[in-house]
Amino acid sequence: MSNHLALSDYLVFITYFLLVASFGYWIYRRKQKASLNTKDFFLAEGSLTWWAIGASLIASNISAEQFIGMSGEGFFVGIAVAAYEWIAAIALIIIAVWFIPVYLKNKIYTMPQFLKMRYNETVALIMAVFWLFLYVFVNLTSILYLGAVAINGLAGGEYLHVIMLGLAFFALIITLGGMKVIGYTDVIQVAVLIIGGLATTYLALTMVSEKFGLGSDAIAGFKVMMKDAPEHFKMILPKPTAASTQIEIDRYVVLPGIAMYFAGQWIVNLNYWGCNQYITQRALGANLETARTGILFAGFLKLMMPVIVMLPGIAAYVLYKNGHLPQLEGGSKDGAYSAILGFLPNGLKGLSIAALTAAIVASLAGKANSISTIFTLDIYKKYFDKEADEKKLVWVGRATIWLAMLIAVIFTWEDLLGIGGEGGFTFIQKYTGFISPGVFAMFILGMFWKRTTGVAAIAGVLTGFLLSVFFNSFAVPMFGTNTLFYTAYPDGKGGFVIPFLICMGLSFLFTMIVMVLLSLAGPKVNPKAFELDKEMFKLKPTTIVMIVLTLMILTALYAKFW
Predict the structure, then answer these.
(1) Which of 81, 83, 368, 483 is the most buried (most CB within 10 A)?
(2) What pTM does this model have?
(3) Using one digit for the tens of pLDDT, what is the confidence trace for 157-189?
(4) Distance (Å, rounded) from C-alpha 114 to C-alpha 462?
């Protein structure tokens, strides 16, 4: 095992960099004048194909926290963590069928714009400011930090700050060209991500096969893993009993069995894919059929993501358990992916770094563009310069991108936010999960219940946040470990904890009740309610085929690994 790169690794990575950069520049030059139009710069209006939209969605979604964090959860929990990816495929069907028609019919370009049209300007401004802080100080910084740490570990552990600057600069090159450049370069990024990820998975499986004396056979390695760690190939974790070990309890707390499918798993996915500027922005500039097909294509790609980001973690667990991965100190789950990558041969290590870089840079670029879009269209144009022309708004957008990336570099330089202290995946889940129930309740009622009011929306966001904090930190001391609504489990440190996904589900339930009760005090039809008709939700035969195929694959996967 070596953490130093060979000449072939550098050549592979440089080839990847030149390919993405030159292709992005070519796309930019092809439509340089049109990039001075805000709808083209921020939304690539009408120019992204369905496959570019789908690829861009995945490229923006998969980053270092997925490679490192989900592989780590695969090491610790097993295939059950694939629920995040496979339920996302169903969530994307729901978004494509019911959410996107509402956005496109009402010409929604940003999420704060949706809130202003449906509720009022106060709700829109509050959420615009919140999203800017969340995207800059949580998402952008964590993506940059985790990405730099992951690549630095592969490159020898001596270049953290250089890698940070390199990732930020690479993302800037892509982002400053606008959404069209981001969308089409994401196609290359996803291709590199998938090829590099599959190569790593294949190597991990063959390593297992070789260590168990079966030769270099990936299929044999997979069978060994299923036989040696059967508990890691169960989608539904059993509820702990008095006889359960602390490790079994800890696994259940992360992914609370069948209960999570009636609680937070849906809120996480539907809020992320349907109410998130960072994601929906890719489809908002397209027509309905192109947007729908692109989103469903992303759903297909999500089905295979566990193979790339989760299986290497299970392979690392089997190898570590049998004494074949001694360099994984203390069995740390966050080191599982890097431990596997350390065994890659020359050239393949460069490809894996390229895959990681592709995931990181695509996420940075997408996030920076969303930050720029919200600030420019929802804050600058409305409150600072209402008469600004298109050219000026584009340049304000570009300046915002520079500033956001600079802030991210400053805060990750010495890990000022403590991302590494609590683990990057936990950091992101903690700060986005608390607000998700309230935000999702506000969007879902705003779209499909005409009575919902602006007062209810503000109350919903505040209630969702406060209840998330309450169930996570204060419910057990006040009401005990076992109630009608939840069961708390020992955390191994002398305390008790309610599974996070259960907390989210409870927060969402009570937030919906609060919003409904407050809305009942208003008129039967809010004047700002959206007009919906059946024609908006009609599906073409090809769309139905894609949906049915996705559901059939998911059914087969759950039947196999239930």
Answers:
(1) 368
(2) 0.88
(3) 677 788 888 888 888 887 777 777 777 777 777
(4) 19
